[in-house]
Amino acid sequence: MNPAIGIAVLLAVLQVSWGQKVTSLTACLVDQSLRLDCRHENSTTVPIQHEFSLTREKKKHVLQSTMGVPEYSYRPRTSLINKHNIKVLYLANFTTKDEGIYTCELRVSGQPQMVSNQNVSVLRDKLIKCEGVSLLPQNTSWLLLLLSLSLLQATDFIPL
Predict the structure, then answer these.
(1) For residues 38-69, b (16+ Cβ closer than 10 Å) or e, as one string?
(2) Which terminus of the chain is less hemmed in, N or C, by CB atoms within 10 Å?
(3) Which CATH number is associated with domain 17-130?
């Protein structure tokens, strides 16, 4: 085999294996819907397939998938938002019957052996409410400056 071809194949395999690793799976509640955030690396141009599933009483229920067929009963209750480094699944009308272990599984198209997944255990009474997106930057020193200016004006250190 030509060494250049061998190196090209090795680089392609490395790109594919690094391109789809699940980095975190979190769950929270939005109104009456469960939200699952599946964050992942995405350093490949090859399409990434996904599968969200629920394991309850030792039985796996596929909720949303591009790798197989989701269960019919979950189809009208699920919606997916697919971004570059995150896949967000919403499960509407979440109840205690939907409690269990949720899995996000990713696979690069054409590479069935290269699978990455994460699990999260979900109990309705233990779920936190999803936080909104903060419009404030992480460094809020500018906010402290504004507050201190108002305080200085109120104490007549700075005239109006």
Answers:
(1) bbbebebeeebbbbbbbeeeeeebbbbbeeee
(2) C
(3) 2.60.40.10
